[in-house]
Amino acid sequence: MQIYEYSGEEYEHVASEFSIPLITRTGPDFRGRSAVQKLGGALTLYRSHFRGAISAVRTNRMAARASADNGMLFCLQEMVRQGYMRQHGRSAELAAGTGVLIEARSPSERTSQTEARLLTLHFSRELLPLRTTEITEACARSAHPAAPAMQMLSGYLGRLFDAADDLTAAQRLDAGRAAIEMLVMVLRDVAPSVPSGDGPKEVLLDMMRTHVREHLADPGLRVEELARRHYVSVRHAYSLFARIGTTPGVYLREQRLLAAQAMLSDPQLAQLSLSAIAADVGFLDIRTFERAFRRRYGMTPRGWRREHCPSGSAPANLSRKCLNPE
């Protein structure tokens, strides 16, 4: 867990560190504190406490710079006295227990007038198994605290935040993915246009995605093989994955890299070689694995392991201690 304490003048920098860039306006007595739990695989959970008025704006220019896989925020209002969230021409009034989804690729504004405490799930857009139009429709709509799905998600996020320090890297990643599945249930209640997932296409897509996650170590798993194993054409496989805004190949590569990231962060696997990890997630060539990992995460697999391994658990073949123990 990482802890940030900041004044109003410092908040913009802090937000860019663990969330998304914002332009903020705060009252003279504003103080903030955020505790951050990194779950891995482009998933972060953090609890923030604001004392004093704040307005946080994401401008059109900021939103235009967001890449295709940029962040999503689901903000659970644990305590707020007066506030709102605006995006896509909608304004969601913030009240204790409500949840609101916001996307980084569109301008937005959040305002709270006095004191607020919120629990926020920050994740990569591509992890949400919804089409672009469905995500847009779900943004800036309040999820009611009395809704059963919302009660499940809010309770789960609170327990996950408290327990994350005691979980392994792989367990944190699995727990974060489970939170995304719960979030989809919440969004079905919020936006009627979000599909229930009961149709045959959604069932087949879910089967294919599950197959990918369960067979990452198979180096022969390609788009053609995935289609063959599910008795559909390659063209139909592409049309199914287009429903969640990606392609079969991109989804397969992303899942392999997410699994590798979790393994590199797990102290129980600290002695496992990079070649073995690459093979375990379906990369036959270590150089291909290293290039793909660096392109996705901005550093080499060895660099990731060095910076994310717990203190005292560095593998023997690394020459220096972890720089950022958690």
TrEMBL record:
Q: Which Gene3D superfamilies match?
A: Homeodomain-like (1.10.10.60)
Q: Which InterPro entries match?
A: AraC_XylS_family_regulators, Homeodomain-like_sf, HTH_AraC, HTH_AraC-typ_CS
Domain HTH araC/xylS-type per the UniProt entry, residue ranges: 206-307
**What SUPFAM superfamilies does the database record attribute to this sequence?**
Homeodomain-like
Indicate whether Cell cycle appears among the record's keywords.
Answer: no
Q: Region Disordered: start and end of each range?
A: 304-326
The entry's keywords: DNA-binding, Transcription, Transcription regulation
**Looking at the record's lineage, which domain of life comes first?**
Bacteria
Q: What is this protein called?
A: Helix-turn-helix domain-containing protein
Name the species this protein comes from. Pseudonocardia yunnanensis
